[in-house]
Specification:
Number of domains of chain B: 1
Radius of gyration of chain B: 14 Å
Order of helices and strands of chain B: HHEEEHHHH
CATH class of chain B: Alpha Beta
Helix content of chain A: 25-40%
Distance between the termini of chain B: 26 Å
Oligomer: heterodimer
CATH class of the largest domain in chain A: Alpha Beta
Structural class of chain B: alpha+beta
Radius of gyration of chain A: 22 Å
Number of helices of chain B: 6
Number of domains of chain A: 2
Number of strands of chain B: 3
Shape of chain A: globular
CATH superfamily of the largest domain in chain A: Type I PLP-dependent aspartate aminotransferase-like (Major domain)
Number of strands of chain A: 17
CATH topology of chain B: Sufe protein. Chain: A
């Protein structure tokens, strides 16, 4: 993979790999700007899934027969691909989960078991509900205190407040790498160093960063990193929890069942080693395998060119949006990924989203599962356009025209 | 006009539009014309909190007929409310409880009444039917 020649970035060539981009909705060419919610899938991922269920399906880790061995090899190969993609030290530090939410819940439950009353968990004011609610549930269960890093007007975290909130009581900082609503890229490397200096562990919610930037968990030195496969061109229902070996070993298992045991008797059961200790039951086998396919596909592309293209799309979209009367961009952090959230004076985001949809354009409207963040900005929700590398400047132009038409109808 | 005739009239009104945007233009106009719910009646017990937009609905029972007023913070939602009220306002509680609102799918707006749409409209229809059933108790 690393020795492979990188394919020169050409958006039209890339688009050919994504069949869903070529369909129509309501008789209009489909423009997909809801990549923050989920990404479309390249043909190679679709083919992998199709081939598996057509001729390769078998259960893994236990069969003596040919297909079972082949499926096991493919699943474990996918784990190695993930390991290389995020630069984990060991492949057994890669735990397959159902997704980001599942990974966070696993850590909240199992790392949470190691905590005692009075300990503190710190999150930020821009977290997705899935990085808020599991911690609230843990705090209730174990009598812990939840601290929240405030968000500044430009959509960046208040890092001074973060430093003040850190103390010897802080056991875990769970923070998003990139805000799904605002696009803010948080300075997680610096935050991890600060947290470690205070003796806290750090979980990075990578749901919005895995598809947009190179991830090196060893350089970041995060203790946990979680992501969902479906946001990085893989299938839904699968994700990854990365954890440092020593911490994962110290944590009790999550769910009980097959695969996670070493030996079972009615008197005493001993648990399997990493990563299987956290992977009870038959997993989403093709989910794991196709995650590997998706990451390998992404690795084959020129990452710098992708980043430059996505940045161009963001800058162009923001520039054009600000020319429209009454448009206000929510989230103007200095470091942003290709996400633009906005509101239009006097118009409900739902109305704009509905009219854009009828013009073939898929955006997300509402609170984006970040209600506390919406309250922070005093708005009911936003319209969010989130771009992937397969989007084009022409699509942004069509979107701006469609938005102007929608606003004209609604005013 | 019977409840069926009112529904058919709406279906006929919409039949002239073959473009989605024209259809929505009409819905938006209906939303703008909707007689608003009295501000004093926009109380929490009349609020239906959708995931996206909010809906307020008030019902009254007079001389054997149900009367409704409603509002929403989203204009398209308001337009669809206007259609629902056009069909249901002034009907007997029996009619409201048993009627099938077939005009909604017939004019292509069923997505707005899907449980996952979360714009409060499905809950609003339920609320109207429950109000009718309360009267019938």
């Amino acid at each position: 993979m690393t020795t492979q020649e990188k394919i020169t970035f050409n958006v039209e060539e890339i688009r050919k790999q994504f069949p869903a981009l070529h369909r129509e909705v309501y008789g209009k060419p489909f423009i997909y700007f809801d990549n923050g919610a989920t990404s479309q899938k390249p043909q190679i991922v679709i083919d992998t899934i199709n081939r598996y269920y057509t001729s390769e399906n078998a259960n893994i880790h236990r069969g003596v027969h040919f297909l079972s061995q082949q499926a096991t090899d493919a699943y474990e190969e996918a784990r190695r691909i993930v390991q290389q993609f995020i630069h984990a030290k060991h492949e057994h530090e890669v735990i397959f989960t159902k997704g980001t939410t599942d990974g966070i819940n696993l850590v909240a439950t199992c790392f949470g078991e190691l905590l005692t009353a009075g300990d503190e968990i710190m999150i930020s004011g821009m977290e997705h509900h899935s990085n808020i609610v599991p911690w609230q549930m843990l705090c209730e269960r174990k009598k812990l205190t939840l601290k929240v890093i405030p968000v500044l007007d430009n959509g960046e975290l208040d890092l001074e407040a973060f430093q003040q909130l850190l103390s010897e009581k802080t056991k875990l900082v769970a923070v998003t790498h990139i805000s799904n609503t605002l696009g803010t890229i948080n300075p997680v490397k610096w935050m991890i160093d600060q947290a470690h200096a205070a003796g806290a562990k750090v979980l990075i919610d990578g749901a919005q960063s895995i598809q947009h930037m190179p991830i090196n968990v060893q350089e970041l030195d995060c203790d946990f990193y979680v992501f969902s496969s479906h946001k990085v061109f893989g299938p839904t229902g699968t994700g990854v929890l990365y954890g440092k070996e020593a911490i994962l070993n110290a944590m009790p298992p999550y769910q009980g069942g097959g695969d996670m045991i070493e030996k079972v008797t009615f008197e005493k059961t001993t648990y399997n080693e990493l990563p299987f200790k956290f992977e009870a039951g038959t997993p989403h086998i093709i989910g794991g395998i196709a995650t590997g396919t998706a990451l390998r596909y992404l690795s084959s592309l020129d990452q710098e060119a992708i980043h430059a293209h996505e940045t161009d799309l963001l800058n162009f979209a923001q520039e054009q949006l600000l020319k429209i009367e009454g448009v206000r961009i929510i989230g103007t952090a200095r470091e942003k990924t290709s996400v633009v959230s906005f509101v239009v004076d006097g118009i409900h985001p739902f109305d704009i989203g509905t009219l854009l949809d009828k013009q073939g354009i898929a955006v997300r409207t509402g609170h984006h599962c970040t209600q506390p963040l919406m309250d922070r900005f005093g708005i009911p929700g936003t319209v969010r356009a989130s771009f992937a590398f397969y989007n084009t400047k022409e699509e942004v132009e069509t979107f701006i025209q469609a938005l102007n038409r929608s606003i004209g109808m609604l005013r | 006009m019977t409840i069926e005739e009112k529904q058919q009239e709406i279906i006929d009104d919409f039949a002239i539009y073959d473009d989605w945007m024209d259809k929505y233009e009409y819905i938006i106009e209906l939303g703008k014309d909707l007689p608003l719910i009295d501000e004093s009646k926009k109380t929490n017990d009349r609020l239906i909190e959708g995931c996206q937009s909010r809906v307020w609905v008030a019902s009254e029972f007079n001389n054997g007929k149900m009367h409704f007023t409603a509002d929403s913070d989203a204009i398209i939602t308001k337009g669809i409310i206007a259609l629902l009220i056009r069909v249901l306002d002034g009907e007997s509680p029996e009619n409201i409880a048993k009627t099938d609102l077939y005009f909604i799918p017939a004019i292509g707006l069923q997505e707005h009444l899907s449980p996952t749409r979360a714009n409060g409209l499905l809950s609003m229809v339920k609320r109207l039917k429950i109000a009718a059933l309360e009267v019938l108790k």
